[in-house]
Amino acid sequence: MTIAAAEAPPPRDCLLCPRLVAFREAQRAANPEWFNGPVPPFGDSRAELLIVGLAPGLRGANRTGRPFTGDYAGGLLYATLGKFGFAEGEYGAHPEDGLELRRVRITNAVRCVPPQNRPEPSEVANCARFLATEIGAMPRLRAILALGAIAHQAVIATLGLRRALFPFEHGRIHVLPGGLTLADSYHCSRLNTNTGKLSPQMFETIFSELSGHLSQASNQYAQT
Ligand code: URA
């Protein structure tokens, strides 16, 4: 497993993806009070679990500046994190709500908001350098949860692994070379929950398994 050399976080005016730059500029003009920039991760870099989403939602993270904050997907994600002890405090859908993450950090495969919530493959590839830095900067990282197939593939590519060996499958837990765990879930988007592809119960099952997995790993470390 190889992780690319560390890169600085993207500047506010990152120019790597022309389509996303144009969209960002249009949003800055239309909604100057919004964040409208590459959204930084949320949570401590000493966390054991990294959650990788797709990209900021237009009126969610792109508006508020915190991943999954202010849109439907965030409501479900933070409620579930709270149930499993990964978050403390009240999620108020804004970055000053005082919510604190426990043992988990959250980022996105693509840091800038894409039109129609759909990043292009070249944009995922451009942003991989920042995901690589993120992963490389988490000394206690044990597990990654990919929300959706694009996030899963971004993680696999970032780690220099072969996609065919690690296919995306909801509920699957992959053990990666080097011992890192990669868990897959359908994205907690409104579309997926409205269509019944992902129920809150199914989402909770993933966190229940991850929680068990992380405690097992902690016990093993404590015994060595
Ligand atoms: N908000 C994010 O930050 N990421 C997603 O993938 C969806 C909503």
Q: Please summarize the sheet with the most strands.
A: 5 strands, mixed
In what range is the share of β-strand residues?
5-15%
CATH architecture descriptor? 3-Layer(aba) Sandwich
- The first-level CATH class is given as Alpha Beta
CATH fold-type name: Uracil-DNA Glycosylase, subunit E
Short description:
The chain is α/β, with parallel strands linked by helices and 224 residues long.
Explain the layout of strands and helices.
Layout lengths: L17 H13 L18 E5 L7 H4 L7 H12 L3 E2 L11 E2 L2 E5 L12 H16 L6 E5 L1 H10 L14 E3 L5 E5 L4 H5 L5 H24 L1
Parallel strand pairs: 1-4, 1-5, 5-7
Antiparallel strand pairs: 2-3, 6-7
Structure description:
- The protein has 224 residues and is an alpha/beta fold.
- The protein has one domain (18-223): Uracil-DNA Glycosylase, subunit E, CATH 3.40.470.
- The protein is built from seven helices and seven strands, in the order H-E-H-H-E-E-E-H-E-H-E-E-H-H.
- The strands form two sheets. It has a five-stranded mixed β-sheet, with helices on both faces.
- Strand 6 and strand 7 form a beta hairpin.
- Helix 3 (72-83) packs across helix 7 (200-223) and helix 4 crosses helix 5 (149-158).
- It starts with 17 loop residues before the first helix and ends with a helix.
- The structure holds uracil.
- Residues 53-57, 60-61, 67-68, 71, 73, 108 line the site of uracil (URA).
